[in-house]
Specification:
The chain is built from no helices and 16 strands. By secondary structure, the protein is mainly β. It has two domains: 72 residues, no CATH class; 136 residues, Jelly Rolls. Strand 3 and strand 4 form a beta hairpin. The radius of gyration is 24 Å and the shape is elongated.
Length: 213
């Protein structure tokens, strides 16, 4: 039975759903294409907002008794290098850094070394990379987070010394992305020889991000 009108309520006469017994309570919004619900998940003492008519099946926002708010489907990912190395990366071309270990991919938006934005918004994206065996005779080299709208890079414009075993890069950006835009981490080198590697260890490369707003 649909509830079409509620009388009363207010400070002195609040509207109460439930009688204090251990039981879930929810309000269902019966739409044409989609249903939504808001309710008390009594087993976890949390207020849940989600998709569908069944409480807790597809939770979009959960507020616990201490006021902590989680968004289980909010786009967020963290990947690490894994065992597959990028070795002897070619100069004068974009080399996409590969990732074989997913720490988490909360909305299933990362695949084939690429993050795909599920919705238009502002996304925080970051990366840490250890570049090994950089060539001392190159003019410059850089890592960049390449998105459909723009490329964000950190450049190293001086040749490294011949005794240098590795060089660290770190990028942190706020990217404007449209729905279905992509982002990946790439390496580019001008001049020199093809000696640069990102070896296959999780600690040597990480790529991560989440939807901010």
């Amino acid at each position: 039975m649909a509830l079409t009108k509620v009388r009363g309520g207010g400070v002195d006469n609040p509207l109460t759903l439930g009688g204090g017994a251990a039981s879930d309570r929810s309000i269902i919004f019966d739409g044409n294409a989609q249903d939504f619900h808001i309710g008390l998940d009594d087993s976890t003492d949390s207020l849940t907002i989600g998709l569908g008519s069944t409480l807790g099946t597809t939770s979009h926002m959960v507020i616990d008794a201490n006021g902590h708010i989680t968004k289980p489907l909010q786009p967020a990912f963290h990947v690490r290098k894994g065992s597959t190395a990028n070795t002897n990366m070619a100069k004068s071309t974009y080399n996409t850094i590969t990732f074989g270990t997913e720490v988490f991919d909360q909305n299933g938006d990362f695949a084939s070394n690429t993050f795909t934005a599920p919705i238009t918004g502002k996304y925080y994206l970051g990366a840490n990379v250890r570049l090994e065996s950089p060539d001392s005779s190159c003019t410059f080299h850089y890592f960049e987070i390449t998105t459909s709208n723009f490329s964000y890079l950190q450049i190293y414009d001086q040749p490294v010394t011949s005794g240098c075993d590795f060089h660290g890069f770190s990028l942190n950006i706020l990217a404007d992305m449209d729905a279905s835009d992509t982002a990946k981490l790439q390496y580019y080198q001008i001049g020199g020889n093809d000696t640069s590697d990102v070896t296959g260890y999780d600690a040597h490369a990480q790529f991560y991000g989440h939807l901010v707003c």
